[in-house]
Predict the structure.
Amino acid sequence: MPFRNSVSGNLLMSGYTSSGHHRGMLDSSVAMVRRMAREVEQWDHVSYVVVLGHCASMKDLVLGDQVHVQALKKRLELNVYVGSALVDMYGKCDRAHDAHCIFEVLPEKNVVSWTAVMNAYNQKELFEDALQLFLDMEMEGVRPNEFTYSVVLNSCAGLAALRNGNALGACALKTGHWRYLPVGNALVNMYSKSGSIKDAWKIFLSMPYRDVISWNLIVTGFAHHGLAKEAMEAFHYMLSAAENPSYIAFVGVLSACAQLGLVDEGFYYLNTMMKEVGVIPGNEHYTCMVSLLCRAGRLEEAEKFIMSNCISTDVVAWRSLLISCQVHRNYDLGHRVAEQILELKPNDVGTYVLLSNMYAKANRWDGVVKVRKLMRDMGVRKEPGVSWIQVGSEVHVFRAEDNLHPQMDQITEKLEELIDQIKAIGYIPNCDVVLHDIEDEQKEEHLMYHSEKLAVAFGLIHTPKGGTIHIMKNLRICDDCHVALKLISIVTKRKIVIRDAVRFHCIEDGACSCGDYW
DNA sequence: ATAGGGTTAG
C-alpha cells in the first residue's frame, strides 16, 4: 500500500458451520434469499449470527441488508451477538457509518462489538477514529483481547503512530497476547510502518511461530527502509526455514533491488521466481523491474520493458518511468510518457504535477502555465502536502504554509534559525521545486514552509535533545526539503526519519538511506 | 450452538 493516508487533526491521542438446521443455507445468495423468505419465521438469533457471518465473508451487502431488516422486525438487533455480527457485516461491506450506528445503539457492548467497529474504521482507513474507539473502550473498562490488539495495532501502523503502537506493544507483551501469530505479525507491521525496522526485527526474531505473512512483512519492511541487503538476507533466511517463497516476498526483494539499482540481482530474482520457484510474476514485479532500470538510468530500456511485458496499460509502471525522467532530466521521453499516462487516465493529478515540475526544471515557464490551465480545465487539483509528527500523546499536523498551528510563531522562528544555520554550511534553496505546489503563487518562501520543514522544526522544539525525529508525509518529499533535512541533521546532531508516500528516508549525519535517489 | 484479527510495486 502506498503510504498516502493522512490524518485529520489533533487527536489522541465465518464462517458457516454445517450443522443442524443451518445446513445447506449457503448454496448461493439467491437461493438464500428465497429460503430466508420461507424459513425466516423459524430463525432464532443463532441463525441470524450464522447468516450475517456468511454475508460478511462474501461481502454480500444485498443479502445483509435484508437480514438486517428481518432482524429489526424480530427485535433481535439489540442482542449483543446479532448486533456484533451486524457491525462486522457492515464493516466488511465497507459501510463503516452503518456499522457505527448499530454499534452506538447496542445496549450491551462487549469486546467483540468494539473490535468489530474498530475494524470497520480500519477498513475505511479511518485509523485515527479506530484508535480513538480503542481509548473509549478502555475508558468503559472493557479489556482488549488478542483480536483487539491485532486490530488496533493495525490502526497504529496506518497512522505510523509509533508512540501508541509502542505502548500497545508493551501491553501485548505483558499480557502474553503477543504470542498469537496475528498479534506478532501486527507488531512487526506496526514497527516497520512506523519507521522502527530494528524493533520489527526484534519482534520477528522473538516470535514463537512464524508464517508466510511474518516473512513477507519482514522482507518488505527491510525493502521499505532501503535495506536491500537485509531484505535479501531475510528472503534467503525464509527459504532456509522451508517457507515457500511467496509472490509478496518477491515483490519485497525486487523493490529492494530497485531502490539500490542492483540490476543484475533484480534480474536474477525475476528469473529464479519464474523458472525455479514457479511463481508467475505480476504487475508489482514488473513495476519493480521498471524502476530498477530507471534507477540505473536505463530509461529507454525501461520503456521497452513496459511495452513488452503486458504492463503497457499499468499507470503505476508508467508513472515510475515518468518520475525517473524528471530525476534524470530526460524531458523528451518524459513528455511522451506523460501523454501515454493521460491517455490511460486523463485525470491523473500526479502526472500533471510531474509534468509541470519538469517544465519548471527546464525553465519552460510557458509550459508550466499551459499545464496549470489544463489542470484547471480538467478540474483536477493537486492533493495538498501534509506532514505530521507525534509528540507526547498528540499528533500535530502541518500543511504547506500552514498558519493554523497555535505555536506557529515559535515554529517559524525556529525554522528561520535553522535555515540560517544550514545556509552557513552551504544550503542554497532549490527553486526547481517551487512549483511543487502548483496551485500556489510562485513565491520564494514557499520552499521554506513545506510541511515537512515545519514538522521538523516543531519536532526539534518538542523532543528531547539527541532524540530521533519521526515525521510522516502523504506525498513524496521534494528535492529541496531532502537537502535541507540532511543539513539540519548535521547542525542539530539529530537523526530524522521521514516516511513519505513510498518509502522511509533515514537521515543521519548529512546522509540519507535512500542514497539521494527516490 | 451463535460474533471479531495479519502481508503486495509507485
Notes: The CA atoms of residues 77 and 124 of chain A lie 23 Å apart. DSSP finds 25 helices and six strands in chain A. Confidence is low (pLDDT under 50) at residues 9-27, 434-444 of chain A.
